[in-house]
Write a structure and sequence with these properties.
Length: 209
């Protein structure tokens, strides 16, 4: 570990993605204690939140006749979730936030979805996280959170393309797992894509206490 240049990233660890939330990710609650065990091992951490206005473009309910997980163009449509200012859009109450130095809210533009911690889904509108990390000298990012195949994965991809050393802590993440090709899911596809870009996949136990 390099305390001055390593940082832990918590991607969208929010009640809205928990099993009883609006967009449930299976077993998502299990990552909370893992993340809390990881946080004391890092001197620095950041977090992101999905932060959508009502009627966001990515919500199936915004498009008559559409249902969650339909695809409109290149946009997957979701249940209404992460509504800005609601309790379920907050960082999960059980997360120890003492080391979280900045929170990036994304997806607040009504007509533009946002998975990555670094860019909106147009891949050009920056969130500001890259500048914040660079000004402080961080070079290696360890990612946790929800969901592996969307917001965690897109964050990792953008970070790799920006030149960061990236590791995904797999037992501190969970994915949605939408079926793609026979026998595969969006988790498998994302994992292969990130591995080809140089992402490392580790377990929380691989990090020295």
């Amino acid at each position: 570990m390099q305390p001055d240049t390593d940082i832990l990233g918590l991607i969208d660890v929010q009640p809205t993605f928990m099993p009883d939330g609006e967009l449930p990710v299976a077993d998502a609650h299990a990552i909370v204690p893992v993340i809390n065990r990881l946080l004391p091992r890092f001197a620095h951490a950041f977090a992101t939140q999905d932060w959508h206005p009502p009627g966001h473009f990515s919500f199936a309910s915004t498009h008559p006749g559409k249902t969650p997980f339909d695809v409109l163009g290149d946009q997957t449509l979701w249940p209404d979730h992460g509504i800005a200012g609601t309790p379920n859009a907050a960082i999960h109450a059980a997360i120890d936030q003492a080391r979280i130095e900045v929170v990036i809210r994304k997806g607040f533009r009504p007509h533009l979805d946002s998975y990555s911690a670094f860019f909106e889904n147009d891949r050009t509108t920056a969130t500001g996280l890259d500048g914040w990390l660079r000004q402080r000298g961080f070079r290696r990012i360890f990612l946790t959170g929800l969901a592996t195949d969307f917001c965690v994965g897109w964050s990792a991809e953008d970070a790799l393309r920006l030149g960061y050393d990236i590791a995904i802590i797999e037992d501190a993440c969970r994915g949605i797992g939408i079926p793609t090709l026979a026998g595969r899911t969006t988790i498998d596809d994302m994992r292969d894509k990130l591995a080809a870009l140089g992402c490392r996949f580790i377990a929380s136990g691989d990090l020295a206490a």
